[in-house]
Fold this sequence. Notes:
By secondary structure, the chain is α/β, with parallel strands linked by helices. Helices cover 35% and strands 19% of the residues.
Amino acid sequence: MTQHFAVLGSPIAHSLSPALHRAAFEATGRDATYEAREVGAGGLAAALEELVAAGFGGVNLTSPLKVEGLALAHEASAAARAAGAANTLAFREGRILAANTDGVGFVTFLERAGIGVAGRAIAFLGGGGAAAGLVPALRAAGAGAIHVAARTPERTRALAPGLGGPGVTVVPLEQAEAGVRQAALVVQATPLGLAPGDPLPCPPAWVAAEAVAIDLLYHPAVTPWLAALRARGVRAANGLGLLIEQALEAQRFWFGTTPPRPALEAAVAWQDPFSPPSSRGPEGSSAG
């Protein structure tokens, strides 16, 4: 019997999740479909009711649905509870099971790139569901001080238990400078800097030349902030590597098996974002 899965969020038309999961299904010989559906804030409950009734096996969630997804689940993984958000749901025997694969996927991505986090200071620009999913995993990996600059610090602390632990400081976004300047890893988790006239998430000069920067956005593949950092010689990457790891973790959550990574990498024309520009092909467009 054909199984059905989807990614839900808004906006969603640019999503690369269908390409990744369809490649995983093909590589493993699984009879399954995967689609993208536009679902805005407040619309998740009705969407899940429809999908469960239609016999879907599960979904991935992106902005702005991750917090709502956790609230609607009957059971949740420890990672989802710590993050206060879920990015993967499974439907089993009338129950909704929630997981958050952001953190483990991000740590795996960094490890594969040879970027250690143990004892290193980390700064986040943005304190939403994406940051909330990453911080607990980084703490578990032994990260040093973690500085989270959020547009709404009070809401961030209330919704994300993992952002209130030891070694984590949450401040208003306008107070980000000190944490960014001291960080060995800077993670950009806001939608800033894309629209004409929109300010960058932070001045590129705040990021130390020897630091590593990750922009969790990957549509476009090179945001203005990333381009400015690379022009200064900073090692910087977009979020496509994390998306691949999230897809692998979601497949494990749904089926208990892991598809071959090369199949997923080929589906999105993956190239090492940290290799020297001379050894890379042209930057391609990517999405969430």
